[in-house]
What does this fold into?
Amino acid sequence: MKRQNTLKPVRFDDTADRAPSVARPVRSRARSLGMDAQVEPHRHPWTQLTYCARGLMQVTVAQSSLQTTFIIPPSRAVWIPPGVQHTVTVLEAAELRTVDVHASMTPLGWDACRVLVVSRLMRELIHALEVSQPGARDDALMALTMDEIRHADIQALGVPLPRDKRLRALCEAVLRAPGERATLSEWAVDIGASERTVARLFRTELATSYQQWRQQAILAHALPMLARGTPISEVAAASGYNSDSAFSAMFKSAMGQSPSHFQYKMGSSP
It folds into this structure.
């Protein structure tokens, strides 16, 4: 997953008419980005829903001193509240869509990043907003888009990294070797801590268990491989699974679709 040596910096789109306003509080913009393009770290005073109609991207956010990486296929979008620094890295050539939402339209309690499941209706609304002009139809599209966003299912698809140095070392080791089937006790030995201590750190630092965190790390590792057309058997083995069926069952439970669905989505036209 690390491609730092080939990343191509891309400037944040800060054109004058970019920002949503009270008059037009929901705006959608389209942008084509090639593989390995990286939109520089930035933040803005409005909320943003980041989505790609085609391709695969990685969105890394820094919020409340915690860094989290989200892997976003076309069936998902990441909600980024106002003022949150984020970086977008393209893992597979992408048709990027951003829905910019005026801060006054942010739903109550939506002050943290979250991954939303993109319904067919949401996808079509986002596309319609790209070419919409001020008027009654535009008002209706904006209202319906926000209603669809508010009612979207939330998907756990982020890989947070902790502040604690010991736990961060363990997490980074797992990310480097997601196929390693070591137990938490075995990983704990490597950082000089007990299994009980590490389990407690996962709960206090990341509000999750090691097993739940590792599943997100595996998904983040598997999705780009699937996007490139890697056979499911190879993805399963690289993810530490002895059988394709066990990997597929885990993947479908977490993503709501089989691994082959994401291979098809990545390779098809928008």
In short: Confidence is low (pLDDT under 50) at residues 264-270.
